[in-house]
Write a structure and sequence with these properties.
Elements: H1 7-11, H2 36-46, E1 58-62, H3 68-82, E2 89-95, H4 102-113, H5 128-142, E3 145-151, H6 153-160, H7 163-170, E4 179-186, H8 191-195, H9 198-204, E5 207-211, H10 216-230, H11 240-251, H12 255-272, H13 279-300, H14 303-314, E6 323-325, H15 326-339, H16 347-360, E7 364-369, E8 375-380, H17 386-393, H18 407-413
Parallel strand pairs: 1-4, 1-5, 2-3, 3-4
Antiparallel strand pairs: 6-8, 7-8
Helix pairs in contact: 2-3, 4-5, 10-11, 11-12, 12-13, 13-17, 14-15, 14-16
The chain binds a DNA duplex through residues 101-104, 122-128, 130, 302, 304, 325-327, 345-349, 351-352, 355, 367-377.
Length: 414
DNA sequence: CGTCCACTGGAATCAAGGGTCT
DNA sequence: AGACCCTTGATTCCAGTGGACG
């Protein structure tokens, strides 16, 4: 019998990581450190639901990795436990970043409630009004208080406006027996002020709870708490935890980032066969995370976006700072997509795609005025790392594409 | 100080493609 | 089969604008 190709992994026993799941950011620990205050507030607000009274709607504001989702889900599950006998409430969670159209949000909420597989709502085809009425009917039939959590609410908001949220917050007017209260979660602090229209602002923001970023000390606590169960004893250098905490704290007090950093550091150390995790591993991990993020973003780009990104890289800069403008990129883009046999999008579209790439953090662009020279986006080519080009050029759609054309000359021909 | 460039940013619109319903 | 509905991607239109130039 030949050796398993996994032989070296079978033989090499894990000597650092005891339980890697605990280091995943999605893992919800038994105790949520440094969030007692927020937990208490939410509990106070939604407790009336246990007696079938409608709690106030809540708007939760805090940056990524500050424990918003974890806290809400924790409280939600505790609520269900406390309610197990009287059965007066129901907790429903929807992540609006994943489920991001009005239809899919209603569809998702409804099908969490509808148990009969024959009555489930089809994933497309119905009018919104019809789903909404159906949803209201099912909710009312349950004769309970529904706590509906809409996570990343600003994501859907940006794309679709606030209509669904308006309907959801007014659903109580259609109900005779049941009640619905909404918990909205956003990491955009300006969301509550600017994006929310007046008609929904007062409804959704009946109560507001702020999740401040974790301080470095708090992050250290959180990490220490996790490694106790996640790692074997004495496998980590003293400097590692404070280092991870410091790196993550300077950004936004992001616990998710800190955990990722620690987990990947441990991975790297273990794969290397090192017996102890050091801050050098953390440095590697940090680079790896950054690179992975770029790879991931590029992979999920649409073909047109990839072509635009390539155009940005391939556009020769006309000034000393090494930046290019929308117009320059567009001429390159026309050339490139023609060469590749793709249809050519309008300049307005390409401008949109450039803005999108900017938001994704792959490029940096800012609007700049050149006086009479016009107003345009100045795109920094230097900041586009070699990694981006390398990853991008290995993409399938660029296979066999000839990049030797000289856009700056050819534009004058047209 | 006003002009005026080369876009930006927002919104309305269209077409195609996924469906359901009667 | 025909009427409707939602989503997505793209197009078209248009009012605005920061600031160098004259």
């Amino acid at each position: 019998m030949a050796d398993s190709i996994f032989k070296k992994y079978l033989e090499k026993k894990n000597n650092l990581i005891k339980n890697r799941g605990i280091l995943q950011a999605t893992y919800v620990p038994e105790v949520l450190l440094h969030r007692d205050h927020q937990i208490g507030e939410i509990v106070d607000i939604i407790a009336p639901s246990l007696n079938k009274d409608k709690p106030s709607n809540i708007l939760i504001i805090g940056q990524t990795g500050t424990g918003k989702t974890a806290v809400v889900n924790y409280v939600g599950h505790e609520l269900e436990k406390a309610d197990i006998e009287s059965n007066n409430c129901r907790y429903i969670y929807v992540n609006c970043e994943v489920i991001d159209t009005p239809y899919s949000i209603l569809y998702n909420i409804s099908n969490q409630i509808i148990t009969d597989p024959n009555k489930k709502i089809p994933f497309t085809g119905w009018s919104l009004e019809k789903i909404f009425n159906e949803l209201a009917k099912y909710i009312d039939d349950e004769d309970r208080v529904f706590i509906i959590v809409l996570d990343e609410i600003d994501m859907s908001f940006k794309k679709n406006g606030d209509d669904i949220f308006y309907y959801l917050t007014t659903i109580n007017e259609m109900l005779k027996k049941s009640r619905v209260s909404i918990i909205g979660i956003t990491n955009n602090s300006t969301f509550a002020e600017k994006l929310l229209s007046p008609r929904i602002k007062s409804r959704l923001g009946e109560e507001k709870i702020i999740f401040p970023p974790y301080t470095p000390e708090q992050l250290i606590d959180i990490l220490n708490n996790r490694i106790e169960y996640a790692l074997y004893p004495d496998v980590i250098d003293n400097s590692v935890i404070p280092y991870c905490a410091a790196i993550s704290a300077q950004g936004s007090g992001d616990a998710r980032k800190a955990l990722d950093l620690l987990r990947i550091s441990a991975d790297i150390a273990e794969r290397n066969g090192d017996s102890i995790i050091t801050s050098a591993h953390v440095d590697y991990a940090r680079q790896k995370i950054e690179l992975d993020a770029v790879v991931e973003v590029i992979k999920t780009l649409t073909e047109q976006s990839k072509i635009v990104l390539m155009s940005i890289i391939k556009t020769p800069s006309s000034n000393e700072t090494g930046s290019v403008t929308t117009g320059d990129v567009y001429t390159t883009y026309i050339e490139l997509s023609r060469n590749m046999g793709y249809n050519v999008l309008s300049q307005r579209m390409v401008a949109n795609l450039i803005s999108e790439l900017d938001m994704l953090g792959i490029i940096t662009a800012r609007v700049k005025s050149f006086g009479r020279g016009g107003r345009t986006k100045e795109i920094d080519v230097n900041k586009v790392s070699n990694d981006v080009f390398f990853i991008l050029s290995s993409d399938d759609i660029f296979r066999g594409v000839d990049f030797t054309f000289k856009p700056n000359k050819q534009t004058t021909l047209m």
